[in-house]
Every structure is written in structure tokens, then in C-alpha cells.
Amino acid sequence: MLRTIVAGLRARTARLVLSSVAIALGVALVTGTLVLGDAIKASVADEFARDARNVDVAVDPNTSHSATERAGLTPAMLDTVRRVPGVAAADGRQSVAVPLVHAGGRAKPALGVAVASDPRLRPYDLVSGRDPERPDEVTVDQRTAAADHIPLGGQLTLLDRRNTPHRFTVVGTYQQGTSRSEAFLADQVVLLPSVLPTLGEGHGYEQIVAVAAPGVDQAQLAARVRSALGAAGVTVRTGAELTQQRLRSVAESAGSFSTFLLVFALVALVVAAMVIYNTFTILLAQRTREIALMRCVGASRPQVFRSVLAEAIAMGLAASGLGLLGGLGLSAALQRAVGALGGTATTVRLPLSGSTVIVGFAVGVLVTVLSAVVPALRATRVPPVTALRALPEGHDEVMRTSRKRIAFVLLLALAGSGLAALGLVAGRDTGMLLTGAGTVALLGAVVAAGPLIVGPINRLLGVIPGALFGVPARLASANATRNPRRTAATTAALMIGVTIVTMITVVANSGKQTVNAEIDKQFPADFTVTSAISDRALPASLVDDLRRTGELRLVAPEYRGYATLDRPGTAGATPGDTFSISGVGTDSLGELLRPTVVAGRLDRLGGDEIALRDTAAREAGLHVGDRVSVRVADLAEDERVDPGRGPATTLRVVAIYHGSGPLASALVDAAAYTRMQPNVAGFDRILVRLRDGVSAANGRDAVERATRAVPIAEIDSAAQTKEELNSEVNKVLALVWALIGLAVVIALFGIANTLTLSVIERTRESALLRALGLTRGQLRLMLLVESVLLGVAGAGLGMLLGSGFAWLLDRSLSTKDEVITFAVPFDQVGVMLLTAVVAAVLAAVLPARRAARTSVVAAMVDA
């Protein structure tokens, strides 16, 4: 039996190649994802954990002590650590916001880090040059230097707290570690510790690190430091513990990204499984006489079954090996893509662990074997005598199967429809889960109904080609419907991939259209001037400069901060909920700010009145007419609001509004805001409306001139905001298209594979058609049309399902106050359909070429 299996594999190697490619692609995505996750962890451990390198003990503020967290670690604490026996060197790490002025004269966020007093305690690696030694010198992160084209010896401008420019000479570049700026891809520079206080406001040291003297272990030194500092509200860790903390934080992000990729890998494997199932179904149908002959000469049903599974195992092993190699290439490509997004050159790492190899082979073999089980069982159940007939009878079995299939389809459709209907009336979170489950069930129903619906669909699609191309196209339509199960399995693989792509694309486009409409409705300002540095306000003088500009009709400044909301009499007991709050002028409301009022009135705001966003009102349990105690935090405190600080003001809720995007959770009059926060330094943003007849280009030039003296001023427009939003969404869609595109590619291999096997199966039929007058060109055209019909059927059905599922998801995400606009991007959908047609034509090229080149006489004799 073994010799028979080996001989069969040799004879059918060419027929199994395309199927092996399908499995290999699925395995490549799985193993590539696993290798990428291991590479990220290895990179963090070896390259990016520089802030923990050479550190034996680290002291951090205890986050449970808010006062210590605000004040940071003091110089006295650093002196205490330095006096601890066994400490060879200790340093305090600190950083401040130091806006960097780039070539255009505008500022952007940057972080200034103090140079280490001991080279061993650098949280970075020097790439070129040296550390700063003088107050007017700076070392720059290599990403910043590359992005702004800053050479060694070049000049760099930083702004101090009063936005006064200071020039520095660049003396070196470095690669930073896993600091907070790395996570947000922020610019970073290294300066002398004495320079930092002159540029920005710090809160003491963020961390104290120490190196142990020879012979002192980390645990022993950590215990001594902990004892010396006492109950100072700090956390003391060993260097090993600090490293593990850094690794865990990045490993969690890497794990989330890997999980995201594995979801698409699962889709690709499902599609590959359908291709394998179809391949073995066709191959075993073609080998009916061969299997029957094996049964006649003594092979038992179990032996036949095992021989088929042995072929599947061999194919799975070979495909998994190819997939493993492809996964390494895919991981390298993903690492380069991630590095390109971050603006840095990335060292490609390909750590191939034993677990990754095992998972890759296990997945490939398991998917292949499971896909071959049903065809193998079906082949063993055919009696030898029946199989030796020219046309085995199977009509009754097909009818029984069809009735079972109809019942199963109806069951899935009813379950899916019920779940989707419940999702439309349930809350947003529950509704999403129910609707998602419903769409999966409905997709399963369509897949199960495939053999019942592909015939009518292909006959309908074949009308136009039949009218245009005549007999070859009509033959192609007949071929596409002659074996419904085979056609359904081929088109279903493509349909699943296109359904997912279409659904995600339509949902994303609907979200874009909804947000764009909200921006146009709620923020009709022509331009918005904001601070490029989050913790620095725009100066009040800028408002006067803008108002003196002749092209501007209305200039409305806005304060912004964070506040706690409490019912009067409860504020001193427990902290209230924290919300963003804006102080606006009366002239802004209705003219430059148009939130949708759902309760109360918002034509103006008095000094003792407040308007709340609907989400904030629900969270705080407040309604129109209620009184609320409001405490505004200092701008420098950002979102860390201490309810015990600052004066409390009692305001009356006069309106509840619905809004999205940059609209704050609470609105008060500008005068009321300054009364609650007298230390406010300036404005958070300034809304601008042009005079009638002033073009957008001229208006922008006018705003640019007025803000030229304020480097931190950043000018945005509604169109620019929408463009940035659309750009971000399109980046995500491009990633999704690329990942799910692999499943579509696998499905197209399935079409090519089906056509190739069909050409072999229909060798005598093709020869007979040639003998009756069909030319080689017409034979090629017939196969091309058949492939296009399969591709259009799968892609078209997928687009319809994807759009329908997207509508269900949009409805389940919509609420009474926030309705998502269903919007199909017909241009993108059209591109998908055109791509499917072109890909289907390419998939048919080789099978059509093979069929056309076959000799008529040889085909009649061999068949």
C-alpha cells in the first residue's frame, strides 16, 4: 500500500502544487506572525531596554502617593541613595517638554532629557558624536535628526516656558530606549541637567538609578536603598525587575498586534481549507475507477481511507515547510514596514523557535488532513462494481443531501436573522456582539446554500458574455453550473475574503462620513488655531493680533482644561468624575460652535450656568436644572485633577448636548472659567471665521501672518482635519486589505486549481469540441469566461453580503443621539470587482494554455 501511495503522489505532483501553495500561504501568515512577535520581544530585550541596562537598583515614585508623584523624586533622595553603602554611582533621570522649532518656523513637541552623570547610566546608545558638555550643546535622537535633516555641528532651536527661542549646537546623535517618548514616537534631545530648568517646568526626578559596587548583588543593594529612603512614598526595584517590567509592557503590545494578525491568519486558513477540500473532492472523483480497482484487488475501505489521508499528510508537510520559509520572509517585510512607519532603520530579526516550527507544521498538516477527511470518506463508500461503471448513479443521494442542506441553511439563516434583529434593538456593546454573531451565522448559511444558488447566479451572469462571445461563453456558463458543489466550494473561498474586506471597508467609510458630517455641522469655523504643545497655552495677545486682521470677521478664543463634577454637598467626600471643560464666549455659540442640543437651551451661557455633553451627564447622573459643584484643575496638571485643590463653584445645568471629536464634555462661559481658574495662562484654541468674499487661501495666509510670532501656534481647518482623519482610516484599511488580501489570493489559487483539474478531467470533452470545430482561441476564451464567471460570482456575492453586514453593524452601533450614516464607497468596491475580474483572467491563463496546446488525437486516445 505504501508503494501505491508513493506512486500516486509522484503521478499527481503537478495537480497538488496549487493546493500546496494555498496551504503554504496560510501557514506563512501564521508562522510569520509568531516570528514577528518573537522578534519584537527580542528587539526589546536586546536593543530597546537601554534605560534598564547597567542599572542595579531603580527608585520610582509610588503612584499611590499623589503628592510624591506630582513633586517627583527630590535631590535629597538622590543624595541619600548615593550615600548608601555599595552604590558605585547614582543618577536622577529627569525630562521636560522642550518644543523644537523645525525648518518651517513652527514648533513641535519634543522631550528634553538630562545627560547622565555616569556613562553607564545612559538610557540611550550614542550613534555618533558625543554627549553635550556645554550649556549650548545638544545631542539629538537619530530619528529627529533624520526627519529634520540636522547634521552634526548644525543648529537646533528649542523654546523655553515663555516660548523664547534658544539655539544649540548638535554634537551627537543617539538611539533612545523604551522611554515614554518612544511609545509615542516623540522627538527627543539630551541636554545638561542645568539647562532643563531654564527651558521647561519639571517635577523633580522621574527616576533614580544606581550601579552597584563590585561584589554587591542587586537584591542586597535594593534592600539597603529601601531602608535608607524609608516610608518616602517610593518603589524600589532591582535592575532585573526593572528590565522585566519594560519587557512586559512592550510584550503586551506585541501580543495584541500578534493576535490581530492571527485573526487574519485564521481567515486565510479557512479559505485554504476550502481549497484543499475542493481539490481532494475533484481528485477523488477523477480517481473513482482507480479506487474501485484497488478495492477489487483486495484493498479494504480503511486502507483506501488511510491512503488518501497519507497523501494529505505528505502534501501538508511539504506545504508547511514552504509556509515556514514564507513566514520568515513575511516577518522580515512586516518588521521593515513597522520601522518605516516609525521613521527609523530596523534591524530585521528572524528568531525561529521550536514552538513556531511545531505550530507551523501542526497547523498545515491538520488543516490539510481535516479538509481531506470528508472527500476520503465519500470515496470509500462507493461500491467497487458501481464505481467501475461509466456513469455512477448518485441522483437519489444528491436529492437527499439537498433536502438536508436546505434544512441546515434555513436553520442557520433563521438563527443569524434572529441574532441580527436582537442586535439592532439591544445596547451598543451587546448589540455589536449579537450582530457579529448573526453575520457569522448568515455567512455560514450562504456558504452552505452555495450548491443551491451557484447555478442560477452563474446562468444569470453568463447572459451578457453569451450574447457577446457566442458559443464559447455559453459553454463556459454551462461548465460553471454542471457541478454545483465544486463551483460553490470554489466561489465560497473567494466570497469569504471579499465579504470581510467589503464589510470592514464600508463600516470604516460610514464612520468617516459620519464624523465628517459632525465636523461640518458642529464646527463651522473656517480655521482653528491651537497649540502644538499640549501643556502650553496660546498667549492672549494672539487673539488681539487676529482680531486686527482685516480678512477675519469673527475670532473666538476658548479656554480648556479638566474639572471634577459633584453634586453640592458631596464634593468633599469622594472625588467626582473628571471631564474636559471649555470656557467659551457667547459669540462662539451658534456661530462657531453648534453642538446638537438634546435637552434645555444653549443660545447663551450665563456666569452661573453649565452645559454638559450627553455622555458626561449620564456618567455623572445629572439632568437639566440640576446644580453641580465644579472644580477646574491647573493646565499643568493635565488630567490629574485633585478635587481638594482650587475653588469650587456651583453651576446650574441649562443644556445637555450631543457632540463628538474635539468638543469638550462641559461648556461654561469664558468669564466663569477664569473665575474658577484664575491662574490660566492663555487660550487652548481660537476659532476663526472669514469675512464674506475672502477665499480660503487668502484667509489662511492672513492667519499665518498673524501667528508668525507665536511658533507654537498650529493652524487647522475643517478640511484638513477631515483629510487627516481619512488618511488615518485609509492606513488601517490598507493594512486590512493587505492582510485579508492573502485569503483572496489563496481563493484565486483555488480558482486556478479548479480550472486546472477540470481541464484534465475534461480532456476528451475538449478534444471532441475541437474536433467539432472549436478553435484553440475559442477554447481558451471558454476557460477565461468560466474563470471570470467564478470570480465575479464569488466577489459579487461577497460585496453584497459585506455591504449588508456593514449596514447591520452600522445600525447596531447607532444610538438615538448618534446615528451612523451608511455609506458605500462605490469607487473602492468597483476597484475590488475589477481586481477580481483581472485576477480571474490571470488564474485562467495557464489552464487555458494547457487545454489549447493538447493534441486532439492524443486527447481522444488517452482519455
Name a few traits of the molecule.
single chain, transmembrane helix, 23 strands, 863 residues, 6-stranded mixed barrel, 4 domains, 9-stranded mixed beta sheet, alpha+beta
What does this structure look like?
With 863 residues, the chain is α+β, with helices and mostly antiparallel strands. It folds into 4 domains: 54-248, no CATH class; 408-448; 452-522 and 719-863, no CATH class; 527-716, no CATH class. Helices cover 58% and strands 16% of the residues. The protein contains 28 helices and 23 strands. Strands 3, 4, 5, 6, 7, 8, 9, 10 and 11 form a 9-stranded mixed beta sheet that branches. Strands 15-16-21-18-20-19 form a 6-stranded mixed beta barrel, surrounded by 4 helices. Strand 4 and strand 5 form a beta hairpin. The longest helix is centred in the N-terminal third of the chain and has 48 residues, at 239-286.
